[in-house]
Amino acid sequence: MTACGRAVISRFAEQPVTHSPRATTRYVALGKQTERDFGLFDYVMPPTTPGASPHYHRGFSETFYVLDGELDVLNGGDWVKAGPGDLVYVPKESVHGFRNSTESEVRFLILFTPGVAREDYFAANAARRAAGITLSESEQDAFAALHDQYNVH
Question: Rounded to a whole number, what is the largest CA-CA distance in the chain?
Fold first, then answer.
């Protein structure tokens, strides 16, 4: 990103990207680049990918905006489908999750407000999955809690 006066420009070629068997994440805007106002990720999931299991966050809200395909989003206790142009806003402390249950790829934006360092969580999970490392449920819960994610079982 290049600062121009008060504006910040996120150049596509400079945006970090992580790949794992479950997703490709492009870090469009990091919280540290937006003075913690927000973080924005471009997320692509292959067909029939489990995604994020039920969880909540205490310190930030999460919003999903579907660009292509269909995204299943857990809204409390109900799974709902969101398609291109649909937006799903998840307030702080609301239980949610997401998955791709279709035979097609899904691409969506994830907006975090305020702009917490979610890239640390996403990148560490991607690296672990790419290396074939599996954590126990208690290890995953402890790791998630370090990043303001509280898994619901």
Answer: 47
| Model confidence pLDDT, tens digit, residues 5-33 | 678 899 999 999 998 888 999 999 999 99
Domain span including residue 132:
19-151
Map the chain to HEC letters: CEEECCEEECCHHHCCEEECCCCEEEEEECHHHCCCCCEEEEEEECCCEEEEEEEECCCCEEEEEEEECCEEEEECCEEEEECCCCEEEECCCCCEEEEECCCCCEEEEEEEECCCCHHHHHHHHHHHHHCCCCCCHHHHHHHHHHCCCEECC
Q: Do the Cβ atoms of 107 and 43 come closer than 8 Å? A: yes
Query: How many separate domains does the chain show?
Result: 1
Please give the average per-residue pLDDT across 41-53, as a whole number. 96
| Amino acid in the structure at residue 21 | P
Domain contains 5: no
* Nearest residue to 62 via CA among 49, 81, 75, 79: 75
**Position 23 in a domain:** yes
- Domain assignment present for residue 39? The answer is yes
86 occurs within a structural domain? yes
Looking at residue 48, which CATH number applies to its domain?
Answer: 2.60.120.10
